[in-house]
Specification:
222 residues, Rossmann fold, alpha/beta, six-stranded mixed beta sheet
């Protein structure tokens, strides 16, 4: 425990879902409920679930692939899963359902520019970066306030989506922007956040894991 800070509370663990049929087809399928998990995705979810310890609170997005991933965790930890609106993937808008290199390039270039600060930019027919954060971050704040109080609380798991997770975590932590923009998450990899408190007041989030990476997060290795 650091001087000036109270005992750390539990972690907020953002988990990317398992592999879906949309991922295999390299289609931009972001609209809910979206595609199901593949057999491999179900195996990934089951393997992740086997590694969960304790009795964390469990939440997931409205997308089917996230709900199916969370169901595997639920079967192990015996904690009921709650579906949360607001933590779904970045919406592809007019690019939805496309699987061309051009469509993917436009989508990912827009996303990259969000990390560079151009949050007013929109995916064609879809969301701006501000709109993604405006729906995602209040959910995280509510979970923190309700389940991760100063000096106590159990871990909170949220099964979500890679691009939305990275944008949100990059916005609320001191993880270098270049690292957040470049470092993708594999299926069922996590971003783990610890709320910090001083004199009982919430002072911000510390990122303790980003996929296979732990601090310090070096953009040069992303």
């Amino acid at each position: 425990m650091e001087i000036g800070h109270e005992k750390r509370t539990g972690k907020l663990i953002l988990v990317r879902h398992g592999q879906s049929h949309g991922n295999v087809g390299r289609r931009l399928e972001t609209r809910v409920p979206g595609p199901r998990l593949t057999e491999r995705g179900a195996e990934q979810a089951a393997r992740f679930a086997d590694g969960v310890t304790g009795s964390p609170r469990l939440f997931c997005s409205t997308a089917l692939r996230a709900q199916q991933t969370a169901a595997h965790i639920e079967s192990v930890v015996r904690t009921p899963v709650t579906v949360l609106p607001g933590v779904q993937e970045v919406q592809a808008g007019a690019l939805e359902g496309l699987e061309t290199d051009t469509a993917r390039a436009v989508f990912h270039q827009t996303y990259q520019r969000w990390h560079e600060g151009e949050l007013d930019l929109a995916v064609p027919g879809g969301e701006t970066g501000h709109e993604v954060l405006d729906r995602y971050l209040p959910v995280l704040e509510e979970l923190r306030a309700r389940h991760l109080p100063a000096g106590g609380g159990t871990d909170v798991i949220v099964v979500s989506h890679g691009m939305a997770m990275r944008l949100a975590a990059g916005a609320i932590t001191e993880v270098p922007t270049a690292f957040a923009a470049r470092t993708r998450l594999d299926f069922t990899h996590t971003i783990e956040l610890v709320p910090r408190y001083s004199a009982g007041e919430f002072t911000g989030w510390e990122c303790t894991r980003w996929g296979e990476n732990v601090p310090p997060f070096d953009p040069a290795t992303a």
